[in-house]
Amino acid sequence: MGRRMFVAVVPPEPVQEDLAAFLEPRAEHPWIAPEQWHITLAFMSDVSASAEDRLVEGLEAAAARRTSMRLQLAGAGAFPDPWAAKVLWVGVRGDVDELGRLARNVRNSAQHAGATPDGQAFAPHLTVSRLRRVQEQTRWVRVLDTYEGPSWVADEICLIASELGVGPHGRPRYEIVATAGLG
Q1: What single DSSP character describes residue 66?
Q2: In whole angstroms, what is the distance from residue 160 CA to residue 5 CA?
Q3: Residue 38: CATH number of its domain
Q4: Structural domains of the chain, count
Q5: Is the peptide bond between 80 and the residue preceding it cis, with omega within 30 degrees of 0?
Q6: Where does motif HXTX 1 map (predicted)?
Q7: Which one of 94, 117, 177, 182 is CB 3.0 to 4.6 Å from 71, fit for a cystine?
Q8: 10 Å Cβ neighbour count for 150?
Q9: What is the mean pLDDT of residues 149-170?
Q10: Structural domain containing residue 88
Q11: How many CB atoms lie within 10 A of CB 100?
């Protein structure tokens, strides 16, 4: 069995700090720690050691074909929906068409490297809460929907390994394996 990995855009520290400051007075909700915040471009549940080097090379090539983009965290929603939520998220605005093209290039590179990505359609978002059980979350979606963070220029992607349940409080532990610059 290989490693669980994903490719993501990680917001810079000032963006994370701004969102953390927005969530801090609402600490009664189980928020994900800021160091785990990211915008997933592709998720691969089983990357073999032999595919990992090819994956890094492919991601570098995919990133080089795309340009840096201006992004902003704003808006909100829930998966599958606010009335029966398992995940709460903050939306992404800005150059989302370019972000979508980047996600397609990343997924194609992963497939070509032998690290098959999941079949989920790309939906640009940053997960801020994973709930232990499905529950109605319309109030929290309305609160999160008022958030508009600072914009930033995304100029790299990260390949991140994920180990479930071994981080603090039973959370996943993330390790950045490689980064690739855009453009």
Answers
A1: S
A2: 5
A3: 3.90.1140.10
A4: 1
A5: yes
A6: 38-41
A7: 94
A8: 13
A9: 87
A10: 3-181
A11: 15
What is the C-alpha separation between 156 and 10, in angstroms, rounded?
A: 8
Amino acid at 180: A
**Tens digits of per-residue pLDDT, 60-98?**
999 999 999 999 999 999 999 999 999 999 999 999 999
Q: What is the pTM of this model?
A: 0.94
DSSP output for 89-142:
EEEEEESHHHHHHHHHHHHHHHHHHT-PPP-PPP--EEEEEEEEEEE--HHHHH
Residue in this structure with the two tokens 């009335």, named with its chain if needed: 83
Query: 125 an active-site residue?
Result: yes
Whether the CB-CB separation of 109 and 62 falls below 8 Å is answered with: yes
Q: Are 157 and 63 in contact (CB under 8 A)?
A: yes
As a whole number of angstroms, the distance between CA 112 and CA 149 comes to 36
Confidence of residue 171 (pLDDT cuts 50, 70, 90): confident
Out of 29, 112, 125, 169, pick the active-site residue.
125
Marked catalytic residue, from 29, 38, 112, 169: 38
Alpha-carbon span 151 to 160, nearest angstrom: 23
Neighbour-count burial for 34-60, b at 16+ CB within 10 Å, e otherwise = eebbbbbbbbbeebeeebbebbbebbb
